[in-house]
Structures are given as structure tokens and as C-alpha cells.
Amino acid sequence: MTRRYLSGVQPSGLLHLGNYFGAIRSHIANQDNAFYFIANYHALTTLRDAAAMRQNVFDVARTYLALGLDPERAVIWRQSDVPEVQELAWLLATVTGMGLLERAHSYKDKVDNGIVPSVGLFYYPVLMAADILAFDSDVVPVGKDQVQHLEMTRDMAQSFNARYGEVFRMPKTELGVPEPVPGVDGRKMSKSYDNHIPLFPRSKKALKKHVMSIKTDSTPLDEPCDPEGSALLALYRLFADEAQVDALKQKLLGKGFGYGHAKLELLALIEAHFSDAWTRYAELGAHPERVEAVLRAGAAKARPVARAVLNRARAACGLD
Ligand code: ADP
Ligand code: TRP
Q: Do 170 and 301 fall into the same domain?
């Protein structure tokens, strides 16, 4: 039997190249028997505007469809359409030590960045564990910052299984890219740092502005540029094969070809990579009913799976 891939993406606003290479690309590449959901319950910990929430959920759904997710092969749904995960989260919370949650880096980072430390934000890893365990997931492809949440998920599953018997399957983590995708300023690309390159830019002009703002040193045009270690080269590598990377390096090491030229080459690769997806994204924008139908059909497939696992867990702890 094929292993079940499961992952969630928060509808917390704009998606960028870091999200794509860190997570979404591998979701699309592994879509047979896969379960993907839009984590709107999670987003409530930071997004409290109903209209923006609806719009963002729609945008994430059409992102996946535009990038090639086939609803005949993979299941995609809105997290809140499968409320069974909330009940499962409670069962897990009762076997989870406070200390485990107190060690969560993501919680501390978010509070350090000014997010209100609600009980929901603290409880977030428990809900995430329920998301994963409710679907008997085998592999969870995520970015590096989510690795600790996966370790916590396994801890919670083990605590429950140790007390009540083998109820939960143990999931494994899979990293989309070994290192975080850098943003235009060289730090990790993140929507919180204003250093992103959007996956679905408003226009080609807007995309160009982002790409041209990639930070490089100020080597004059008539001197060789050494791009090794730069964000520009790291981003270029995501789209190019070895031969293209070598060719670009040679041009930069010669005279008369500067970073500005290299950025234009990167821009061309980004456009070539995503132009079909951009077209499909715009088409789906004009047909919200198609997107809604996919999400509803997805929830109808996902819900019985979660119900069966929840019933197993309820029976194991005497709630049947
Ligand atoms: P952001 O940092 O922009 O808020 P999220 O935390 O919403 O992004 O991340 C969503 C998914 O994308 C996660 O699996 C995360 O690990 C991955 N991701 C985000 N930024 C990057 C990056 N720069 N490189 C690789 N993966 C990333
Ligand atoms: N916490 C994840 C993020 O911020 C989103 C998420 C919620 C998730 N539930 C999940 C990812 C379950 C994988 C599996 O990116």
C-alpha cells in the first residue's frame, strides 16, 4: 500500500517561493493517496478578520489547483469542515505534559514577534498532532521550522498508545529543502520579514521589482562578480540545472555581465516555471464555485477517515 502523505498550509496571507520549495512543491509531487488541508483553525491564532480568512482559504485552494493538484488523486479540504480533529485534539491534550508545549520554539518565536499569546496559540501543537494522527498519516512533508511540531506529535501519539494501546500510527517528517530558501535580503524568506518573492505576483512588473531587489555586493560591471554564497545564486539554483548554474557563474566571473543581468535571467526562469500556473490561478479566480466544490468533495472524503480514527481513540479511553 502507498504511504499516506499529509500536510497542512495555513491561510495566513501571501504564499511565497519559500513556501513553494519548502513544502508545496513536494505536496504536488507526492499526490497519490495524499491528504492536504487548509489549516484555517490554526490561522485563527493570528488572523481575526472573517473576510480575509475566506479570501485566503480560497487563494490557498486555487494555488494548489493551479500548481497541478488533481482532486481525483489527492484529497484537499478546509480544516474546519472536519471538526473531528478538535475532539481528537482534546483526547491528546489530556496525555500531553505542559512541559512539552512549553518547549515549543514556534510558540516562543511568535510571542517574541508580538503575537498575542492566547491559549489557542499555546495549544496549537496539540491541534497539529490531531490533524496528523486523525488520518493515519505516514509521511508529513514540511519545512524545517515545523520539525519540532512533528517530534511533539510523535511524543503525544506515544503517550496515548502507551496508556491505551496501539491507537495511532507514527508519522515521519520529510523536509522539502535541506536549507531554508533565502529571501531578497539573504535571511530566510518569510512573510514576516518583507523579503519574499510571491508565488502569484499581482503582475509581471511587481515580480520584477521583487527580483531586482535581491541584495548583492556592489562589484562594478567591468570587474568579475563571485556569486558563491549569495541569495541570488541560491534562488537561481532552485530553478536551474547544474549546466545553467555553471554557465551563469562563468558569465558573472567574466566582464560586462553583472548581478543585474543575472537577476533578469532568474526572472525569466521564474516566469517560465510558473506561467501556466499563473494562467490557471487567474481562471480559477473567476470560478470560485469550482474551487468550493473541490473543497467540499475533499471534506466528504476526509471526514469518514478522521471519524474512524476518532472512534478508535474514543473506544480506547472508554468514551464509547
Ligand atoms: P512564513 O515564514 O512566511 O510565515 P509559514 O510559517 O506559513 O511561512 O510556512 C508554511 C510552510 O512553508 C512551512 O512548512 C514552512 O516550513 C515552509 N517555509 C516557509 N518559509 C520557508 C523558507 N524560506 N524555506 C523553506 N521552507 C519554508
Ligand atoms: N503548522 C503548519 C505551518 O505553520 C501548518 C499545519 C497545521 C500543518 N497542521 C498541520 C502542517 C499538520 C503539517 C501537518 O506551516
A: yes
* pTM of structure: 0.94
Dist. CA 277 → ligand 2 center (Å): 24
- Over residues 98-125, the pLDDT tens digits come to 999 999 999 999 999 898 899 999 999 9
Residue 50 shares a structural domain with residue 34: yes
CA 252 from centroid of its chain's CA atoms: 33
| Ligand 1 close to Cβ of residue 177 (< 6 A) | yes
Domain assignment of residue 208, given as a range: 191-280
For a substitution probing ligand 2, which of 38, 142, 150 has the most ligand atoms within 8 Å of its CB? 142
Q: What angle do CA 292, 294, 299 make, to 5 degrees?
A: 95
| C-alpha cell belonging to residue 308 | 474512524
* pLDDT, tens digit, 9 for 90 and up, residues 47-95: 999 999 999 999 999 999 999 999 999 999 999 999 999 999 999 999 9
Atom of ligand 2 minimally distant from the CA of 39:
7
Query: Tell me, what CATH number does 208's domain have?
Result: 1.10.240.10
Domain count along the chain: 2
Q: How many angstroms is it from 143 CA to the middle of ligand 1?
A: 6
Among candidate residues 97, 113, 99, 184, the one with its CA nearest the CA of residue 145? 113
Q: Does residue 186 lie in a domain region?
A: no
